[in-house]
Amino acid sequence: MAETYRAETRALHYATTASALQAIETTVLRALDRRERVAAIARNLVIKSRERSDESGTLDAFLREFGLSNSEGIALMCLAEALLRVPDDATLDALIAEKINEGNWGAHESASDSQLVNASVWGLMLAGKLVGKSSSGSAFPANWLSNLVTRIGEPTVRLATLQAMKILGGQFVLGRDIDAALSRAKRQNVLCSFDMLGEGARTAADAERYFQSYEAAIHSVGEACTGTSVRENHNVSVKLSALHPRFTESQKAKCLPALQDKVLTLAKLAKSYGMGMSLDAEECSRLELSMDVFEWLCNHQDLADWNGLGFVLQAYQKRSIAVAQWLVGLASNRPLGFMVRLVKGAYWDTEIKIAQQLGLEDYPVFTDKAHTDLSYEACMHTLLSSDRIYCQFATHNARSVAQVIEATQNRDASFELQKLHGMGDLLYTLVQENYPGIQVRTYAPVGQHEDLLPYLVRRLLENGANSSFVNRFLDKELPVDELIADPFAQLIEFDNDNTSSTSASESRIQPASEASRIPLPKAIFSSAQIPWTASKGFDLDDRDLIAEMGQEVVAERAQKCVLAVAKDTVDSTDSVSFSPTSGEAIGRFRSASAENFDQAVNAAASAFFEWSRLSAKHRGDLLRNLATLLEKHTLELASLIALEAGRTLNDGVDEVREAVDFCRYYAAQAEVLMDSEIELPGVTGEANRLRYHASGPWLCISPWNFPLAIFIGQITANLAVGNTVIAKPAEQTPLVALYAERLFRGAGFPSDVLHILNGDGPTSGEHLLPDARIKGVSFTGSHATATTINRALAARPGAITPLVAETGGINCMIVDSTALPEQVVDDVITSAFRSAGQRCSALRVLYLQSDVADKMIELLQGAMAELVLGDPCSLSSDIGPVIDGDAQRVINQHISALETHATRLAIAPLPTEQNNGFFVAPQAWEIDSLDELTQEVFGPILHVIRYNAETLSRIIDDIRASDFALTMGVHSRLHGLHERLENEALIGNLYINRDTVGAVVGSNPFGGHGLSGTGPKAGGPDYLKRLVREHTITDNITALGGNTDLFNLE
Fold this sequence. Notes:
single chain; alpha/beta; TIM Barrel; eight-stranded parallel β-barrel; 29 strands; 46% helix
């Protein structure tokens, strides 16, 4: 039975909303006759709470006063997220000035029922009045803040704001450490579930520190326990991602054994004190791993006589009902049972974004609040059906509380209600007054201010929105019946007017229309000015897919691709493709001869006229056919890319998606550009039109680091506008190109409009570049090669030939002291080391503000030690080899040069079995100046430079003076710094508070200028215009005798 529900869990992971609702329909429809009783209970709780609104808690008052609907709420959220981790006064003052300047604090003066909220407002008003408004209107506070200092001094402003934050912050955690929290809980006489605040572990040291913190907390809590049973004592929550830095499906074999040992130790310790311990809920991608750990603990003989083990279930997940059923089945085999805390879920916005980024079929969570409420109710009834589950219902929604009360009346149910510390005090006071037999437990966060304030931001996001029940609970302007309205009334269709239980089985739950407000991932570009369908992706943490992506399966799939395109005969003109992972030959291919080059240009030139006369719609349909075929063969292409290019499977899937996006995006753009005319203004009696026309055969030269995406992108852009193409793939990855060629043919492209010619660069250039029949060149590669191509084209007699070149860059990231260290390290590792640093956009230089550099470097060192280098055909590999021996030698020479003057800060471990592969260990080196780097080194080498805040202007000057202008990153909570870099650094792609790689077609058009390329940006609205010719038609419409338009004027 357990395996059945595990399979159902996987089936519902990305189910449609309709399918997910169908899974809970039966459970909910059984309770139809209870809905009026639930409404009556909820109505009574709300009315009585509003009559006593002056007794509401601080956080409730805070959320009413500062929600996400006003600028002050947003400013406070930004301050809270970063304020107390900033160590230096200069940056602290800049952050305070910027955020305080964004709020109208006077509007909130004495507006709240809470004295503490009013006190914090007064502090912020003081800061705001002292700061004043920027006379220049600039968001960057440097000039006017210095004037402020001369008037009253920075410490006054700083003190006022810090006090405001601490007044608020102190209300939202029970204590800054577990002993303080226990002392406060004792004074308030509350039963607690303690949550030790903090980020997930990034390093082994983090994981050990969190483990020791949990261990100490259990000792302290256990020693304070006075109850005779687990249910009468405090308990703790444990976050599994805090106990291992690689708590992911791809690292399952590595993390599960270590996690099980640690969690068992903690569980046995909790058991010894007669207290409970729950595994906290995390992101959707970690649910099945959490279920593995929980099931293992349930079956462990040392815990068989303990009922204090707990699991946290998130109702917003579409698969929550299957998990609830799995828990009921699991409990049936455990005599003493266990605890289950049911929550709505805390990572909703993150899950939506991840699903869109991955291009998934659907979302793992409900996108409509009513659906989540429905799921919560279904899970509640399911859990209550077991007499071996101690249910812990965590909610601040009066209707959800009422549902629990109604469902447990007149029955011997084992349950409690839970609330967040600082929230819902009034609601739960009334619950305990009216239903004294119900136990209420407080979920109590414990931690230092730097850990607390990001937690406060999460609570703001969850409960500060206008749609939040907490935000509207005590709003007397909102009718009570509207607040507690049954969210399912709009979802339930009856076959007749009879709503009795007799017709319940004939009812049908339907998705609410509001769900369409968040489009499916494939439709996120449907509202663009020129819409197109986004590419389909894969969740490589999904276990059903993982079964199809085993290392041996991937290798076999790649070899089948090779056999489909490689030559099986040998002659003197054959060339060989080698795997960078093993150095072994993987397939033969035919290199083009001089005759082949000439034949291809002849054919492309001859086919151009007819091809260009076809409608852009016809060509676009062929491109969409190609996109469909690419998606159909995603796993084959990703496997072949792993084998021949050494890119990981994750990189390979992303690359296929980018190729698909190029097809659909350029098809849509070309249909607007090429099949319509632009009417231009002019004098009366004259009509002026502008239209575009294809320019002729183009040569497309693509690189090995994106052997499919850039290859496809260059070709499809030209084919979309009506150009014919001679494509020269990188000599290191010919088999990927040949497999793509088969898909072009399968999509219906005529053979003469696209000619793919493999061979080495110099030979290809010698034969193709001087040929005047080639009307333009698209190139991605090194600046040196682009310069060679440009000179060859300039030497040709006749017309000037356009060159569209995208070259590399010495890409920098600036990190100031407001940045979140864990987020920085995550993004630095992705930017610098993903794809073995072999991306044009890869991070090469990391500028760290000196005040936080040591902490950031320590975190980076530990995170790099956790990286897994290995066979890219294995899902467990984070990083594969560099492309070939030449690339390896160049990188190693650079490392040797660094050893003479730089300091190595960190290095990732090499694979134990390199099998003659071209592996280079990712590493970070500290240097003094950007001047030490004169050219891009294309590999996993990160250079770190410390800087002082006052030298930022010089850094920007240095970056601009390098003349590389491809990508740049900045991690800072100062919008003024973002704007300054945008206006002064003038980089092709500026990324704010995220990584610098993975540009998405249509969203992040990619390309730079200076030494980084010519533009226009690939995947952007102007790219196609560079490939075509413009024609203006001016028609003197009065030539036939007069201007009829003028004569017809009234």
